[in-house]
Amino acid sequence: MTRSLLLLALLLPVLALAKPPSSKEVDEALLRLSPGDLSEVDAGQRAVVAAEAAQAAVEQDIAFAKNDIKAAKSWDEASAAVLKALRHEQEAAQARQDDEELTRLARVGGDAESNAAWRKARTKQHEARLAFDQARLAHAKTSLALIQAEYQVTRMEAYARAVGQSGDVDTELGKRHTSVGKAKKQDARAATKRDKAEDAWKTASLEAERLSP
Question: Who contacts 9 (Cβ-Cβ below 8 Å, separation ≥6)?
Fold first, then answer.
C-alpha cells in the first residue's frame, strides 16, 4: 500500500464520523462567548421572532378579507334581487300602460343598475385583496425561512469563534450558506408574485372607486 493510500485509509474513519454539531452543542458553546460576541446572534433571534409575528399578522388579514368577501357577495345577491323586483314592476306597469310609473321605475332602475355594478366591482376588489393577502402570506413564509437560514449561519459563525475553526465547522457553514442562497431565490420569486397581486388589487380598487355611486 502506498503512503497516500495509507493516509486515506486512516482518514476515512474520521471523515465518516464527522458530523455537524447539534443545536444543544452550539447553545453550550455560545455560553462561552461575551454578550458583545453574541450581539449578532441575539439580533438574528429577534429578527426570527419579528418575522413570525409578521406572518401571523398576514394570516389575520386573510381572515378579515374572507369576511369582507362574504359580506360583498351578500350585497351582490341583494342588488340582484332588487333588479329582479324592478323588472317585475316594470312588466306590471307596462301591462297597465302606466307611463308615469314606467318613468319612475326607469329612474329607480338606472340607480339600481349602477349600484349593482358598483357592488360587483367591490366584490372583485375584495377578491383581489384576498389574493394579494395570500401572496403576502406566501412571501412572509419565504421571508421567515430566509431569516431563519441567516440566523443559523450567524449561530454557526459564533460557534466557530467559540470552539475555533475546523474542517467540520467550515463544511457546515458552507451548507448553511447554500441554504441561505436557496432561500433568497425563493423569497425573490414570492416577492415578485406578491407585487403582481398588489397591482391587481390596486386596479380592482380603482375600478370600484370609479363605479362608486
Answer: 1
Report the percent of the chain where pLDDT is more than 90. 74
Q: What phi, psi does 2 have (nearest 5°)?
A: -70, 165
Query: By the 8 A CB rule, do 133 and 58 touch?
Result: yes
Alpha-carbon distance 99 to 92, whole Å?
A: 11
Question: pLDDT tens digits for 112-150?
Answer: 999 999 999 999 999 999 999 999 999 999 999 999 999
CA distance 108 to 26: 74
Domain positions in the chain are 47-211
Distance CA 132, CA 205 (A): 12
Q: How many CB atoms lie within 10 A of CB 8?
A: 12
Measured CA to CA in angstroms, residue 81 lies from 115, 116, 208 at distances of 12, 10, 21
> Measured between alpha carbons, how far is 176 from 154 in angstroms, rounded to an integer?
10
Q: Which of 45, 48, 23, 10 is nearest to 156 (CA)?
A: 23
- Judge whether 128 and 201 are in contact, CB under 8 Å: yes
Angle, nearest 10°, between helix axes 167-211 and 99-163?
A: 170
- Residue 11 predicted with pLDDT over 80: no
